[in-house]
Amino acid sequence: MLQLRPGPGHIGVGIHRSVGAGTHQTGFGFWLGGRYRLRLTRRILDIEDNFDERISAVAVIEVERLRKVYGEKVAVEDVSFTVEEGEIFGLLGPNGAGKTTTVECVSGLRRPDGGSVRVVGYDPARARAEVTARVGVQLQHSELQPNLRVGEALELFSSFYEEPADWRELLDVLGLGPQVKTRFAKLSGGQQQRLSIALALVGNPTLAILDELTTGLDPAARRDTWSLIEAVRDRGVTILLVTHFMAEAERLCDQVAVIDEGRVAALGSPAALTSRLEVNQRIRFVPSKSVDDALLAALPEVESVSRRGEEVLVVGNTEALAAVSTLLARLGVLAHHLRVEQPSLDDAFLAITERAERTQPARHQYPATRGGDR
Amino acid sequence: MTIAATTPARRHTFWKLARTEAVLLLRMPGPLIWMALLPVAAAVVLGVVPGTSRPAKALDGTSYLDTYLPILMMFTLLMSGVNLLSSLLSSYREKGILRRLSASPVPPSRLLGAQALIYLGVGVAIDVVLLVVGIACGVPVPHQLGGFVLSLLLVAVAVLGIGVLITALAPSARLAQAVSTVVLFPLMFFAGLWLPRTQMSPALRTVSDYTPLGAGARAVQASIEGQWPSTAALLVLVGYALACGALATRVFRWA
C-alpha cells in the first residue's frame, strides 16, 4: 500500500493556494474571504509553532479503522484516511466498494459499528449540531419537493445556518440565476445537481461532502462542475469527493483513497498512484531523419524499440521520454507526431483493484495452509 | 447543543418550514380539493334533501344530517391526518428529502411536525365549513360547544398519530397509501358511517368505544346532547395519540 503523509512540500502548496484565494476577491462569491484570511494567518503562525500540532489541528476529517455492517453484509471492513484542510480528497472505488457508506459515516447519517470518525474535531454521529453547522452535504439520489422553486429551496436552507452564504450570489456562481423561479421537478438533471451542490455550500461550510457529483451529467456539464469545485476549493473549503470517474479524480483531487471491498486498497496523490504502476511509457513518433534504433535501445531508460512503417515505438520507464528527447535533440532529429501514452489513473485503478482480487484467494487460503502444517 | 436547539433562530425554522410546506400544498391543491369536496357535498345533499334534513323515526327523532354531520367531520380529519399526511411524508422519504434534512442543522422531525400542523389545520378548516353548512341547514348548535371542539381536536390529534405511525411502518409511499386506505374502512365503520352507533349491538358498541373514531363519536355525541364528554372516551383518544406517537418516534425511518 502506498501512503503519503503530508510533508513540508504539502504545506507550501496550501499556502500558495491561500494567497490565491486572498487575491481573487473580485466579483462573484467572496463568501469565505474573511474567515479564510484569518485561517491563513493562523496557519502561518502555526508553522512557526509546533509542526506536529499544526498537522493535527488542520485535519478536517480523521477516519480510523472504520467498520460498518448491514446485517450479514460487511459494507466497510477497515477504512482509515485523513483529509487536511483545503484539500480535495477523492474516494474512489468500484460500485459497492463501500464509498457511500463511508461518507455517510463521515457526514453522521450512519453510526459506525467500529473504529472512529472525527469531522472538524467532532464525532459526527453524536455532535449533530456542531457537525451539521460546519459540513455541507450533497447526497446521492436526493431530491427536493417537486414544486419547490430553486430560490425558495436556497432561501429555506440558508435560514438553517447561523452564517449562511448569500444564496443569490451562489445561484449566479452555479449558473442557476435564470432558474430562480423554476420548480425542482422542471429542472434538468444537471440543474438539479447544481442546485444540490448549492445547498451543500449555502451554509458556508468548512467541509463539503459531494457524493457522485457528476454522475448523470453530460461531458460539458461535468467539466463546468469541475471548474466550480476548484473555485469552491480556492475559497478554502475542504472537499470530500466520492466518484467512480478516474478522470474526475485525476483532474480535481489532491489525494485519493481507492476503496475496494470495504478496505483502502491505495492511498496517495493521483500522480503518486499512477507513477507507482509498473506500466511502461509508450512513446510514438516519426523522426525527421533516420535514427539508429540501436542508439535509442542503448538508453538505460528504454526497454525496447520497434518500428511500424515510419513510426518508431519506444517502450520504457517513466523517465524514457526525457531520455529519448535529449538524445533526439543531440542528434538534431525532430520528432513528428509525437505521442506519449502514459498510464492514467484509470490504469492505476484497474491495477489496484485487480491486484486486490488476485491477492484475495491467497488470504482466504492462509488458515487452511496453517491447518495443514499442524 | 441543548442551548442551540432552543435559540429563537432554531424555533424560527419550524415556522419557515411550515410556511413553505403550506405554500407547496396550495400550489398543488388537487388532492386537497378532492378531499374537501366529498364531505362538504355530502353535507349539502343531506341538508337540502327534505328526507334527510328532517327528523327520522329510525334515528330516534334526529335527522340523517344531525347524525352524519359529526361523522363527516371525523371522516375529514381522518382523510387529512392519515391519507394526505402519510402519502406526502412517505413520498418525501422516498425522494430523500427527509435524509437531506438529516444532514442539515434542522432535524427532519421538524418537517414532520410542520406537516402535522398543516394537515391538522386543513382538517379543522374543512370541519368549520361542514359545521357552518350543517347549522345553515338546521342542525342545532352543539349544546356543549367546548366539549364538542375538544373532542374533535383530540380525534384530529389521534388520527395524526395513526398517520405518522403508518408512514413510519410502511416501507414505500405506495404501501403507505394502500394501508391508509384500508385502515379507513374499519375506522369509519366503528365511527358509525354505515351503521349509526345507536343501532349497533351492545357488544359492537363496546368494541367501537375503544376504537379512535368510535370513542370520538361517543364524545362528540355526548357534547351535542349537552353533556361533557365522558373521560373514558377522551382518554381513549389521548391514549391513541400518545401510543401511536411514541411508537412512531421509535420506528420512524428518515431514509
Give a brief description:
Chain A is an alpha/beta fold. Chain A has helices spanning 8-23, 33-48, 51-57, 99-107, 128-134, 150-158, 167-173, 189-201, 219-234, 246-252, 270-275, 293-298, 320-331, 345-373, and strands at residues 59-70, 73-84, 88-92, 114-119, 135-138, 207-211, 238-242, 255-260, 263-268, 281-287, 302-308, 311-316, 335-341.
Class from secondary-structure proportions of chain B: mainly alpha
Uncertain segments of chain A are 1-56, 360-374
Helix content of chain B: over 70%
Total of domains of chain B: 1
Average predicted confidence as pLDDT of chain A: 78
Number of strands of chain A: 13
Mean of the pLDDT scores of chain B?
Answer: 89
Largest interface, with counts of residues having CB < 8 Å to the other chain, equals: A-B, 28 and 27 residues
Helix coverage percent of chain A: 40-55%
Radius of gyration of chain A: 24 Å
Radius of gyration of chain B: 19 Å
Provide the succession of SSEs of chain B: HHHHHHHHHHHH
Give the ordered list of helices and strands of chain A. Answer: HHHEEEHEHEHHHEHEHEEHEHEEHEH
Distance between the termini of chain A: 31 Å
Give keywords.
heterodimer; A: 374 residues; alpha/beta; six-stranded mixed sheet; four-stranded antiparallel sheet; 13 strands; 43% helix; 24% strand; elongated; disordered C terminus; B: 255 residues; mainly alpha; 12 helices; disordered N terminus
Topology (SSEs and partners):
The complex is a heterodimer of chains A (374) and B (255).
Chain A: H1 8-23, H2 33-48, H3 51-57, E1 59-70, E2 73-84, E3 88-92, H4 99-107, E4 114-119, H5 128-134, E5 135-138, H6 150-158, H7 167-173, H8 189-201, E6 207-211, H9 219-234, E7 238-242, H10 246-252, E8 255-260, E9 263-268, H11 270-275, E10 281-287, H12 293-298, E11 302-308, E12 311-316, H13 320-331, E13 335-341, H14 345-373
Parallel strand pairs in A: 3-7, 3-8, 5-6, 6-7
Antiparallel strand pairs in A: 1-2, 1-4, 8-9, 10-12, 10-13, 11-12
Helix pairs in contact in A: 1-2
Chain B: H1 2-5, H2 8-27, H3 30-48, H4 50-53, H5 64-95, H6 97-102, H7 108-136, H8 145-169, H9 173-191, H10 202-209, H11 212-224, H12 231-251
